[in-house]
């Protein structure tokens, strides 16, 4: 019973989030008010969108450390576009951010695909390059709230049926990525490439191209998040989202997406991000010292990795039975 | 590159010299900045020129390297020594690297002071801090209290829990808390100088303390994020965000009403005061612990045991003046 429960990563996470919410309620009851939970979801929306992209990359046995830097660069460009010509329609600005994000993702993908450099090295390099580019573009200067047009800042905040557009956007992205993963050849190819790259080649899947596609997806989502980030926090500077790549990867790991590739679900990524989101939003209201906050986040991630490692070991040794079951 | 740079500096200084020949009796005070082309220092120069005009017989030479390097400043200082200026007032790119060059200047009878960013004790006669820790601590709570005649709950949003300057200011603030009746500091939270974490911590404060009247953020990332979070929560008018920030970054939030006022040192006053002090030293005043040096309209600065002095309270920016200063820095 317990083993079965532990194997179903999504159920386990739902349970963990439930326990977490119960613990927080005990210390600070207003936290579970529906309005507040909606706010927490809204606050986690950007992390969810990014985790979806990272998931696709990790599924193919790669990693994208440059996502937060990509977000920062795309966001800075979006903010600079808006500051330079406030009349430019916002959809165009968003399109530009997504396009730039995609191009940055393509650079990662091309380097991994054509030059065969290990993904961690490629994206560690581009992380620094993208951050450096922001500095070159902006000269280290900030784009501040009053330099952005009202329309630019309004989009993630505007309410639609009682929820902010930011929340709706993340729901749309979840749906789109879910369809991509479960209903398209590309989605299945992500799993195949990560599960067994050599076997994937024999089934006619181009491993390099599939990885390239995964990087394009993570780049596009990072670009979109870039716009959302700078418009939500109404400020753009070189260091925005500094260190956020670790949160994205942590969300994926907590969500049961195997760093070894091939295992993971959209629901897992979303729940992993939500789990982090609940912790991040709860810690400030339950009076935990800032030093303990870091330790708590770290502990959670290590526990998640430990649970993952156990689950995968079992799976790894009984390939045949699993194949029969499918 | 180096040759080109020194050629340019020499050319600039000789030009300044030629212009000077007409008023040979003028005292020459060099205002050396970290790098040319930075708004903050251009504003300091504005203040220095104002002081020169007021004094009448002073010419200010505004100079500095093209990038913020200690080497560049040393070249500039050496050429100033060759020009036999009367005083050098420097905002240093490095505490120790400039000391030998500045010592040489003092050996030649040039008065040397540092301002804004200091030089080690051996390399200057005195250092002018823009403000002091107690003055800053007092100012940040005063900004909150001034808008709360009835008193009320206020919270502090700091940078990281280990940031020395932030912790010092907050400690100084708590020392004088008793002077502001009814002001109740309910919490100190940390945004780690990250926009998203500061934003989230602000949301946490708004939730945890329904009667919160003000948030004090003595950090430029924090104050902007807190103002945005208060705006998004629809609490403009109920919660006032204040603290330390730059006018160019805060102008929008002052306009929206999320922040009624905030403070930071005024670079114009700083340049003005540095020039005034240099003039006082040229005139024979001595920089020693306990001495008071005149700063014109800014009053006088009293030197501590380390020959350092603080100019004044941080300058307050509000709806009346923020637009004007936002153009400067």
Order of helices and strands of chain A: HHHHHHHEEHHHHHHHH
Q: Quick one: how many beta strands of chain B?
A: 14
- Biggest interface, and residues per chain? A-B, 31 and 32 residues
Strand proportion of chain B, as a percent range, falls in 15-25%
Spatial separation of the terminal alpha carbons of chain A: 21 Å
Helix content of chain B: 40-55%
Specify Rg of chain B, calculated over alpha carbons: 22 Å
Strand neighbour order, sheet with most strands of chain B: 2-1-3-4-5-13
SS summary, helix count of chain B? 11
Described by the principal axes of the CA atoms, the overall outline of chain B is elongated
**Largest sheet properties of chain B:** 6 strands, parallel
Q: How much of the sequence of chain A is in beta strands?
A: under 5%
Report mean pLDDT of chain B, rounded to a whole number. Answer: 89
Mean pLDDT of chain A: 89
The helix-strand sequence of chain B is HEHEHEHEEHEHEHEHEHEHEEEEH
Low-confidence stretches of chain A: 322-326
Task: Detail the poorly predicted runs of chain B.
Answer: none
Backbone CA Rg of chain A:
20 Å
């Amino acid at each position: 019973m317990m083993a079965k429960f532990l194997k179903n990563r999504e159920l386990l996470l739902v349970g963990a989030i439930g326990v977490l919410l119960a613990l927080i309620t005990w210390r600070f009851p207003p936290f579970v008010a529906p309005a507040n939970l909606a706010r927490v979801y809204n606050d986690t929306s950007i992390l969810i969108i990014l985790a979806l992209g990272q998931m696709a990359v990790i599924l193919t046995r790669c990693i994208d450390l440059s996502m937060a830097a990509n977000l920062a660069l795309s966001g800075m460009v979006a903010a600079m576009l808006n500051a330079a010509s406030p009349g430019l329609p916002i959809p165009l600005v968003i399109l530009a951010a997504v396009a730039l994000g995609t191009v940055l993702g393509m650079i990662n993908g091309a380097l991994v695909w054509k030059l065969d450099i290990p993904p961690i090295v490629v994206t560690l390099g581009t992380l620094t390059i993208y951050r450096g580019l922001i500095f070159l573009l902006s000269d280290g200067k900030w784009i501040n709230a009053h330099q952005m047009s009202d329309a630019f800042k309004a989009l993630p905040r505007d309410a639609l049926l009682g929820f902010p557009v930011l929340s709706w956007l993340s729901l749309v992205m979840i749906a789109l990525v879910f369809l991509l993963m479960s209903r398209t050849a590309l989605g299945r190819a992500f799993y195949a490439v990560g599960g067994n790259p050599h076997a994937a080649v024999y089934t006619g899947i181009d491993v390099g191209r599939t990885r390239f596609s995964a990087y394009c997806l993570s780049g596009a989502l990072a670009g979109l998040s870039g716009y959302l980030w700078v418009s939500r926090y109404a400020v753009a500077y070189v260091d925005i989202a500094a260190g956020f790549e670790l949160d994205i990867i942590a969300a994926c790991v907590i969500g049961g997406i195997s760093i070894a590739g091939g295992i993971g679900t959209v629901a897992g990524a979303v729940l992993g991000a939500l789990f982090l989101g609940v912790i991040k939003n709860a810690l400030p209201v339950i009076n935990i010292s800032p030093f303990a906050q870091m330790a708590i986040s770290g502990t959670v991630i290590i526990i998640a990795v430990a649970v993952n490692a156990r689950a995968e070991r079992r799976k790894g040794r009984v390939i045949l039975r699993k194949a029969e079951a499918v | 590159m180096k040759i080109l740079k020194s050629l340019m500096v020499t050319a600039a200084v000789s030009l300044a010299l030629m212009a000077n020949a007409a008023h040979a009796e003028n005292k020459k005070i060099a205002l050396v900045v970290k790098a040319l082309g930075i708004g903050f220092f251009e504003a300091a120069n504005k203040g220095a020129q104002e002081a020169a005009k007021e004094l009448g017989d002073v010419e200010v030479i505004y100079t500095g390297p093209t990038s913020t390097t200690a080497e560049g400043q040393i070249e500039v200082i050496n050429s100033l020594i060759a020009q036999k200026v009367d005083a050098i007032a420097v905002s240093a790119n490095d505490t120790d690297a400039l000391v030998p060059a500045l010592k040489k200047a003092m050996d030649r009878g040039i008065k040397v002071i540092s301002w804004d960013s200091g030089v080690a004790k051996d390399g200057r006669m005195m250092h002018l801090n823009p403000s002091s820790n107690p003055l800053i601590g007092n100012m940040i709570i005063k900004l909150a209290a001034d808008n709360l005649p009835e008193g009320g709950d206020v919270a502090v949003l700091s940078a990281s829990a280990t940031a020395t300057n932030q912790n010092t200011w907050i400690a100084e603030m708590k020392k004088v808390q008793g002077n502001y009746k009814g002001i109740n500091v309910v919490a100190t939270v940390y945004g780690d100088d990250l926009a998203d974490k500061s934003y989230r911590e602000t949301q946490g404060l708004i939730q945890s303390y329904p009667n919160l009247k003000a948030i004090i953020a003595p950090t430029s990332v924090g104050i902007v994020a807190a103002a945005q979070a208060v705006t998004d929560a629809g609490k403009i008018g109920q919660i006032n965000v204040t603290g330390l920030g730059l006018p160019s970054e805060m102008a929008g939030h002052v306009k929206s009403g999320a922040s009624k006022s905030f403070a930071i040192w005024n670079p114009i006053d700083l340049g003005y005061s540095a020039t005034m002090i240099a003039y006082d030293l040229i005139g024979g005043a001595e920089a020693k612990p306990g001495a008071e040096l005149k700063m014109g309209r800014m009053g006088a600065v009293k030197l501590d045991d380390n020959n350092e002095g603080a100019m004044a309270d941080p300058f307050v920016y509000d709806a009346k003046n923020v637009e004007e200063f936002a153009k400067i820095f």
